[in-house]
Amino acid sequence: MANPPQPNVGYSNNPSYSSESSTSLSEKTPIPPPLISPKFPPPTFQQDQTAISPSIRSPPNVLSSSNGVKSGSPISHLSTPPGPPVFTSPVRPAAVPFRASPVTPQPLAFSSGSSIPTSSPPQFSNGLVDFPHQGVPEDSAHVGEAPFVLFSAHKVLKQKKQANVPSLGFGALISPGKEISPGPQIIQRDPHRCQSCGAYANIYCSVLLGSGQWQCIICRKLNGSEGEYIAPSKEDLLNFPELASTMVDYVQTGNKRPGFVPVSDSRTSAPIVLVIDECLDEPHLQHLQSSLHAFVDSLPPTTRIGIVLYGRTVSVYDFSEELVASADVLPGEKSPSQESLKGLIYGTGIYLSPMHASLPVAHAIFSSLRPYKLNVAEASRDRCLGTAVEVALAIIQGPSAEISRGVIKRSGGNSRIIVCAGGPNTYGPGSVPHSFSHPNYPHMEKLALKWMENLGQEAHRHNTVVDILCAGTCPVRIPVLQPLAKASGGVLVLHDDFGEAFGVNLQRAATRAAGSHGLLEIRCSDDILITQVVGPGEEAHVDTHETFKNDTSLCIQMLSVEETQSFSLSMETKGDIKSDYVFFQFAIQYSNVYQADISRVITVRLPVVTSVSAYLQSVQDEVAAVLIAKRTLLRAKNYSDAIDMRKTIDERIKDIALKFGSQVPKSKLYRFSKEISLLPELLFHLRRGPLLGSIVGHEDESLMQQ
């Protein structure tokens, strides 16, 4: 395949560009001048489940996810690629594992030395005490102590015309769900919040020592602390973690949650149901059996497990028969009736059993599996995946399904259904025809998408996450399965086969920490406007969270909260900035795996500068490249769009060189700024890589990557 003509662009450390091409830039490029509305229009609201961000050299490797925006907030576009990131990288306790992609199993994690510059806050003449910076130098960063947030630049330009250059852009990556070790930054009491805008008291607010009042960094209003912040000196106020750290967790445990289970890890009491494709050929089945045997051996003794097989029928295995693989069989062509489910749940069979009592039976069940015998192509075999998940959900609910919804909350955190799929759902509810050439395929696919989404929402209402692990060479029809995983707060992951990588992800799917009922609130100084969000969330309705009189925060509801998730934020300045600093506060509220209510508050302060050179020196090439990549990929939904986006990247690099570079003496060429010399190289790899380049593989790989 011939390579497309290359633009007159260099990708060395100091690339140069011809001014001839730059003179016609306004005619050719989709990047308008800074004062015109966004040069790269944010994409429309999208429902992609998975997208892949380019991997980066050191700190961030980020996988993005769904979407979200709050009504009445200043944000104009909220985009949604991918659901929660996959779990193929080892857990690194000392770093937030922002990941690169589901097909790169060893991404780099954040360096513990990541830093964002801050400096001491402005002084006040009214007796307020500033907080508390403890001699931190101007160019160091509190955020480096807890790298949950990475900004594309550590400084902000004062002038709007200089700051809002869409070809470079400004924004941040945030990973809100990372577990933190117990320490002084964990607070077991209610937070102090601004009664006007809802912001939290933090390290940068100013405090009146005599009265304990504190000034909000977002709206500048004074708030009371019920006398708690009254102190003889500002050093005494350092005993309050929220006034001494940029990141704190407010924790409320079982006293307000009747379902709280005081065990060492409540995940052990949450059941796991394996839903296994029985239409596999012998080579795939052998690999799957090995992975399943290793999986049950890895589970804690108290973990309850269920096993369901699906093909043309649904087989629910009974653990009451020791050392014998015994199953009850239900038809797969339609959803199970209430009578059949009652007979299953109230019968004599045991369908959920702790591993310490059922390990030999589980091994016997896996050993009894047999390869598919009929002479039918893989893609044409009848698979009733939707019915099987319905049955698995009914088993998890058990007799409590008879009680009105919302009255009973089962203890033990999120239950899990893990689907091991080797082909598409072609039989029963939520299915699509075997062939794309079916005359009614588009209509049936539309119905299947809606049905799968409803099933995922039903699972989410019952605190059950559905993870779908796919493997093999047969396309599984990603668009049909995506809504099920996404709506339940789970993930969908592709594998080449059912071997080692599949087995590792199977084990991690059962043990990874996942919070629920997540809510992300983002507050910024009045000078900052959030223009786009990409991440695993959706619009939060007003009645789902606490509101304040002058609350202008962007509020996002998260279906699940996991340490590998991330959001990317694109921002602009509303006008010339008058103050010396701008502030950002991220508040994440969720229930963790121990059923404790967590409110995590992260506060960041960035200095405002007038020097373009100082700003460029603070630019983080890797973060800027990821933000640019996500905005670009959201518009590359098919091959022709991808070709257009490659051209857009070329024009973007030219525009950055023109705006921030310097012209070579006695030449029409422009030299790229040395402060951001790595950026064009990273964008070059985006341009030539599989996300925008030619994608080799079957339809699942194309859909997953695009």
UniProtKB/TrEMBL annotation:
User: Which ranges are annotated Polar residues under compositional bias?
Assistant: 46-79
UniProt cross-references to InterPro entries, sorted A to Z: Beta-sandwich_Sec23_24 (IPR012990), Sec23 (IPR037364), Sec23/24_helical_dom (IPR006900), Sec23/24_helical_dom_sf (IPR036175), Sec23/24_trunk_dom (IPR006896), vWFA_dom_sf (IPR036465), Znf_Sec23_Sec24 (IPR006895), Znf_Sec23_Sec24_sf (IPR036174)
Where is the secretion signal located? Answer: none
The organism's place on the tree of life at top rank: Eukaryota
Domain Sec23/Sec24 trunk intervals = 273-499
Q: Which stretches does the entry tag as region Disordered?
A: 1-88
Q: Which residues form the Sec23/Sec24 helical domain?
A: 622-701
Q: What does this protein do?
A: Component of the coat protein complex II (COPII) which promotes the formation of transport vesicles from the endoplasmic reticulum (ER). The coat has two main functions, the physical deformation of the endoplasmic reticulum membrane into vesicles and the selection of cargo molecules.
What this protein is called in its record is Protein transport protein SEC23
Which organism is this entry from? Answer: Cannabis sativa (Hemp)
Source species taxonomy: Eukaryota, Viridiplantae, Streptophyta, Embryophyta, Tracheophyta
